[in-house]
Design brief:
The chain is α+β, with helices and mostly antiparallel strands and 394 residues long. The chain is built from 10 helices and 5 strands, in the order ααααααααβαββαββ.
Length: 394
């Protein structure tokens, strides 16, 4: 960690006040000691100036300032002394604990306590007078008390920093959750929009191309009828999606999500849209269990069938398109098969987003899905097979 050598403005203020106070006491002739080796009053100014200068280092070099300050305090004891020097030394002791290294913050209180005890016992044994205890008390007030205060302040500061760090981490996690929720919601909206509209738009594209390329009134009229029907159904699906996104609207509650009970209508509509392409769409519902299914499972199964029929309308060769449903106690099986190969006539372009959406839906439910060509009865078919767990995931 980089520490600026430039003194903090508060440190400068402390140094100036301490020096000014010491000079005022010296000018007033207030000296706490007498009969020292260096009895000249001006000699007390040297430790005072040194200690005031060390106050400028109380943040940037707290341990060095404490060591030099200790030497200055010892030197002050050989002069007539200054109360300002002692007070500034206590601040250096406090700053060494608050701004020093963690190791120094642990060692200094213990050291000062041991020094206080040693001084008390030593002077008590030397003077053999209870008044010698006062020397130990003064030593504790000058060294141990500011060190203990520094420990308390440092602990509170570290606790506050830890709390702030936890708050920042919580805010960061909350923001990450929000972004993930927004991303997941956007993906869900994209899947719903694609699955709802792609089928109708594909039919519109194919029949409009047929109407433009075949100059027959009956064919054009039939194609325009299919186009109109798919346009109306597409608008209805869009309104339903908007209702789902709003959750509640001015016109009443949102529309109910499609279920497997609506597959007959979906298959019938797909058959009408693809009749001109030579596709014959049929539903084979072989479910053994007839109990209710979780809503996400029914919606996923419906969308898988819808997208598979849309892909068959775009790409399948003339022939049967079969939707099969099977259910055991734990798994709902959805299969959609169509003839794999080229076919004449207009085709709608594909982007691959439908397969991605199906895989995402199945993955969210913890199921499995396979899509690809495979031989069956001497004919190559395109098979989409999905296995969806019936039990809701907890």
């Amino acid at each position: 960690m980089f520490i600026s050598l430039r003194p903090h403005r508060h440190d400068v203020l402390i140094a100036v006040i301490g020096l000014a106070g010491g000079l005022a006491l010296w000018a007033a002739g207030l000296h706490p000691q007498a009969g020292r080796i260096f009895d000249a009053h001006w000699m007390a100014l040297l430790p005072l100036v040194v200690t005031a200068g060390l106050e400028l280092m109380r943040r940037s070099r707290p341990q060095a300032a404490l060591v030099l300050g200790t030497l200055a305090l010892i030197a002050d004891q050989f002069t007539t002394g200054s109360l300002a020097t002692v007070l500034m030394y206590t601040d250096l002791m406090y700053a060494a604990v608050v701004y020093g290294t963690p190791a120094a913050a642990r060692r200094i209180p213990v050291t000062t306590f041991l020094v206080t005890v040693a001084v008390t016992i030593g002077f008590l044994a030397w003077f053999r007078n209870p008044e010698a205890l006062l020397i130990g008390v003064v030593t504790g007030l000058v060294s141990f008390a500011p060190a203990l205060t520094g420990v308390s302040v440092r602990n509170h500061r570290e606790a506050a920093e830890a709390a702030q760090l936890r708050a920042d981490q919580t805010a960061l996690l909350a923001e990450m959750d929000r972004v993930q929720a927004v991303t997941a919601e956007r993906s869900r909206m994209a899947r719903e929009l694609h699955d709802m509209v792609a089928n109708h738009l594909s039919a519109i594209a194919i029949h409009s191309t047929a109407a433009l390329s075949i100059d027959e009134p009956d064919t054009s009229r039939e194609a325009l009828g299919v186009i109109r029907q798919n346009s109306v159904d597409g608008l209805a699906e869009m309104r339903r999606l908007i209702g789902l996104l709003r959750e509640s609207g001015a016109d009443g509650p949102p529309s109910v999500a499609p279920t497997l009970a609506s597959l007959d209508a979906l298959v019938g509509q797909a058959g009408a849209n693809s009749a001109s392409s030579g596709l014959v769409v049929a539903l084979d519902d072989g479910r053994e269990e007839s109990g209710p299914l979780p809503a996400p499972v029914e919606l996923a199964a419906y969308r898988i069938v819808q997208e598979s029929l849309t892909n068959a309308l775009k790409h399948a060769a003339p022939g049967p398109v079969t939707v099969r449903l099977g259910r055991s106690r734990e798994v709902l099986t959805v299969e959609v098969s169509s003839v794999f190969g080229d076919r004449p006539g207009p085709r709608a372009p594909g982007s691959g987003a439908g397969l991605v959406g199906m895989r995402e839906r199945v993955a969210l439910l913890g199921g499995r899905i396979e899509a690809g060509p495979e031989p069956r009865g001497g004919v190559k078919i395109w098979l989409v097979r999905a296995e969806l767990p019936v039990e809701e995931r907890t």
